[in-house]
Amino acid sequence: MSIKIIYRVGKRRHSSIGSNEHLSVSETMGENRHTVTITAKTDITLKYAGTKTGVRVGKKDHFLLNGYQSWTDTKEFVLSESENNIYKLPPSLVRRFSFDRYGDASFYFYFKPLLHGYDVFYSRGESNSFFFNLNSAVSYLIFQVSRRTGNVYIMADLRWLHLHAGETLTILDYCFAPDYESGMALFRSHLSQKQSERIFGYTSWYNYYQNINEEQILRDLNALDSRFNLFQIDDGYETFVGDWMDVDSQKFPNGLAPIVEKIHAKGLKAGIWLAPFVAERKSAVFRDHPEWFRRGKFGKPIKCGSNWSGFYALDLENEEVKNYIEKSLHFFVDMGFDFFKLDFLYAANLPKYPDKTRSMVAEEAYAFLRRVLGEKLILGCGATPFNCTGKFDYLRIGPDVSLQFDDVWFMRFMHRERISTKVTLQNTVYRSLFNGVLFGNDPDVFVLRDKNVLLSKEQRRALITLNSLFGSVLMTSDNISDYNSEQEELLQFAINCFQNARVMSFERDGDRICINYLLDSESKSLIYDTKKGILL
Length: 536
What we know:
Layout: E1 4-9, E2 12-17, E3 23-29, E4 33-40, E5 44-56, E6 62-65, E7 75-77, H1 91-97, E8 114-118, E9 120-124, E10 129-133, E11 140-146, E12 151-157, E13 162-163, E14 168-177, H2 180-191, E15 199-203, H3 205-208, H4 214-223, E16 230-233, H5 257-265, E17 269-274, E18 278-280, H6 284-288, E19 303-305, E20 311-313, H7 319-335, E21 339-342, H8 358-373, E22 377-380, E23 394-396, H9 421-430, E24 440-442, E25 445-446, H10 457-470, E26 473-476, H11 485-500, E27 502-509, E28 512-519, E29 522-529, E30 534-535
Parallel strand pairs: 15-16, 15-26, 16-17, 17-21, 21-22, 22-23, 23-24, 25-26
Antiparallel strand pairs: 1-2, 1-5, 3-4, 4-14, 5-12, 5-13, 6-7, 6-9, 8-11, 9-10, 10-14, 11-12, 18-20, 19-20, 27-28, 28-29, 29-30
Helix pairs in contact: 9-10, 10-11
């Protein structure tokens, strides 16, 4: 293949296919692996390296495009479909709510004739192929598909990476296979990690959101039985996001330690939620330590989104910041927490860090969290998937579940990481190739309760069924003591699927997905309607 490398020498832009006076290129093409290494002959700053794959998808072929981070919509596309583009919205609206900060919109140019995805790609139909990135420690591998021609391109995102004369770097390293089955076999053999136990648990978020208190938490804890193995306290215990060690004394007058003791007394793991790389505007951290925040070219702190009072990226090159994050995490470790849901992790590599690609920054940031937490269980959320490999036990693989199927109407035009049960169920199916390979998949919660929810009974049935079939984490925010006999029966069916079922195949058919699985040695099948959110 002809690899085109785009780089700068000083302020001058260059492109090269093969070696030249600035760099030498070494290329290895094996039966299933392609590696490209360069050695700088002078100081250079890299931008991209890419080529045509030789794959051309047809109009009826289905092809996977993996979204940038946990929440980004991911599915099998056809060429006639397009991606949501945040810049179709009025710029004033984008700026006001920072809609461009949650995904890749601030650094990837959305061009209507191209579809794109990250680090893994396959096509099924007349054109069959499978590719995945082995170089995420250095760069994201972006797959681009021309909607006009069907041609598939790869591009390593090397922006900001500086090489001094004499330095050598592998800029492309990926595997490829002629079909889905052989590709999955390669995927497992190269990337499979040690898997942690399956989690069946409770989280406080999807019923009370930030409006939690000691009474509510203990009431729902007491409702759990021996089928559960985790009880997680989510957002709302802290005074402000970023002030993690400042537990809200009005909500939790006795602190969190007595609750941890009660969780352990029931034989459950104790879980806690944090967003370690950010702090909101109202926090003491933001007020008292402005020097702790990464700043953009105009000297303003880098905003990561509009949640809470607006939240901002901490500077991960600042040793005081890293010490604060470590101290905050140890605050909960010392309290006895066993399980850490670490959220909004895309904030780590939203800022620019000189001489490092975005993927390098994510690798270092996630590895830092693993070093700090040691053997504690980590569930990543809002993170770039391939960087989580070998660092996190579990990863959320879709956006937040909404209490109505596709959230309020105007949110459907917002960023690709928006809250949506419709999108997260789609991600649950199409990102199932990660489960048990890179980490255990967390498809987010199921909801069976009748109160405080706008999902229909049929949609709630589909949600718990797909979560139990495709995930390694099965969570709810329901008080299960309120369940009627029908809800309890469905819960028990889902637990049986979660523990014993094995998905054999799934296939897209227009707006439907046909799923085949084994349960108790019996072959079963179902059809999921992605537009209505129900099982047919």
